[in-house]
Amino acid sequence: MSAPRSAPSTTGERVLRLWTRLSPLPGGRWLFNRILGRRVPYSGSLGAVVTHLAPGSARVVLRDRHGVRNHLRSVHAVALANLGELASGLALTLALPASVRGIVTGLDVVYHKKGRGRLRAESRCEAPPADASGEYVVTAHIFDEAGDEVATFTARWTLGRREERRGG
Q1: Rounded-to-integer distance, Cα 151 and Cα 168, Å
Q2: 67 located within any domain
Q3: What is the spatial distance between Cα 161 and Cα 164, in angstroms, rounded to a whole number?
Q4: Intervals of the chain under pLDDT 50
Q5: What is the pLDDT of residue 106?
């Protein structure tokens, strides 16, 4: 008889375990994205699709459609910011040590050109040290189908020690 597996202790561990289990299966990525959209409703409303996840790395794709467009027939600036926040947040969440938690305390977006067509946000970050505290910056780059950078998204996180939960 095998020993029972303990539940992952952090959000990042749970997300990565779900991705690892579902993504190779037929329809598994679709199911993962549905679950993610239900667990994070605001980000889920964007309709973006996670195509790659690893600790410190995420790629998220957004299809250009009427619901994310502005009056200039391009993807709305806030939809681009949401796409960058999703990619950078996933990358950092999966990289956080179990002893560290974080919250976004600032956002910055630089728009380089109108976003049209299928857009891809990519984010990579180093894992913070196990005793990390203070500000931590994570960037996501958003590209169009031609490979041109449409926007650069930067999130400032405040990191600190995770409080241990006590029984009871």
Answers
A1: 47
A2: yes
A3: 9
A4: 1, 3, 166, 168
A5: 96
- Per-residue 3-state assignment (H helix, E strand, C coil) for 81-106: HHHHHHHHHHHHHHHCCCCEEEEEEE
pTM listed for this prediction = 0.89
The DSSP H or E segment spanning 32 is helix 28-39
Cβ-Cβ contacts under 8 Å for 20 (sequence gap 6 or more): none
Question: Which CATH number do you get for residue 157?
Answer: 3.10.129.10
Are the beta carbons of 36 and 16 closer than 8 angstroms?
Answer: no
Element (H, E) at 152: strand 149-161
Helix (H, G, I), strand (E, B) or coil at 117: coil
Domain that holds residue 26: 11-161
CA distance 121 to 90: 11
Residue 2: inside a domain: no
Task: For residue 111, tell me if it sits in a domain.
Answer: yes
**33: nearest Cα among 45, 50, 56, 58:** 50
pLDDT, tens digit, 9 for 90 and up, residues 97-142: 989 999 999 999 999 999 999 999 999 999 998 888 899 999 999 9
Provide the number of structural domains found in the chain.
1
